[in-house]
Amino acid sequence: MSSKNLLVISQITDDQKNVIKKMGINVFGIDDLDVQVSKNEINILYGWNKKIGLDIINADHSSLEWIHAISAGVDSIPMDILSKRNIKLTNASGIHAESISQSVIAFILHFVRGIDNAESNRLNKNWITNENTQPAIISDFDYLIFGTGHIGQQIARLLKSLGGHTTGVNTSGHPAEYFDKTVSIKNVSNQLIHADVIINVMPLTDSTLHYFNYDRFASAKEIFLFINVGRGPVVESKGLIKAINDGTIKHAALDVFEEEPLKSDSPFWTLPNTIITPHNTGVVRHFKNKQMRIFLPNLEQYLKDGTFKSNQVNLNSGY
């Protein structure tokens, strides 16, 4: 059997490249395309770039068999085309769970423990200790987490360790580890009226696009904190902005947005009581090493029998 050709779109280290080469794989970079290797000779893509990826998929007599996305979300990849061409897809679901969940806990503590008020008082040189600014603790609140996969479970685990009560929301209401209970997304209305903190970690699919809109927020009780670390377009921007401005959402922590990067004149920058991070809650040191813990075992298995040990994406559901 001839050697497979792998195109690296997302950077890897030289040591990682050498490990892959020792498995009998020819490793190429973007600059090698149409110089050392033709687009139609690429068998495996490591990472995703829309233009490059589509050029390879649509090349005459394309040999592409497998794409490994370095993110958990794969909504930017045309799964309908992959399905028609019998191209397999894996993702990095799971490697971001620890870093994102810790960021979520940091967001919660920032507002629950009154760190936002302390920072405001510092900037204004105010020493305020009256009861109106007395902070709460995590166990004072109920948490509704949309998405019960790796990230949702890790968030629930950390909240549970701090006394938080968690309800998870997924497609069927099936049980998930660390949650006090779970409900199906079709039956979530009754939970919204009890939730103090709503956390979105849902993937972007046809059914979750703009799931969170102003009417959804308004149907909940006053939301102490809304956190979005899922996919930006799951939340309708106009509805979110309105809900924060009119107090339906008291505080917000937003890592993902419908349009990224945010423009300098975006209204998000000036929203009250809002934390904004640039889609980086999943970033962590040694990220490339964590990626390889998924990719290398999958590559080894794929070379044996064309299957994967983990993280294969269902092209119909999108996750």
UniProtKB/TrEMBL annotation:
<dbReference type="GO" id="GO:0051287">
    <property type="term" value="F:NAD binding"/>
</dbReference>
<dbReference type="InterPro" id="IPR036291">
    <property type="entry name" value="NAD(P)-bd_dom_sf"/>
</dbReference>
<dbReference type="InterPro" id="IPR006140">
    <property type="entry name" value="D-isomer_DH_NAD-bd"/>
</dbReference>
<keyword id="KW-0560">Oxidoreductase</keyword>
<dbReference type="Pfam" id="PF02826">
    <property type="entry name" value="2-Hacid_dh_C"/>
</dbReference>
<dbReference type="GO" id="GO:0016616">
    <property type="term" value="F:oxidoreductase activity, acting on the CH-OH group of donors, NAD or NADP as acceptor"/>
</dbReference>
<feature type="domain" description="D-isomer specific 2-hydroxyacid dehydrogenase NAD-binding">
    <location>
        <begin position="105"/>
        <end position="280"/>
    </location>
</feature>
<protein>
    <submittedName>
        <fullName>D-3-phosphoglycerate dehydrogenase</fullName>
    </submittedName>
</protein>
<keyword id="KW-0520">NAD</keyword>
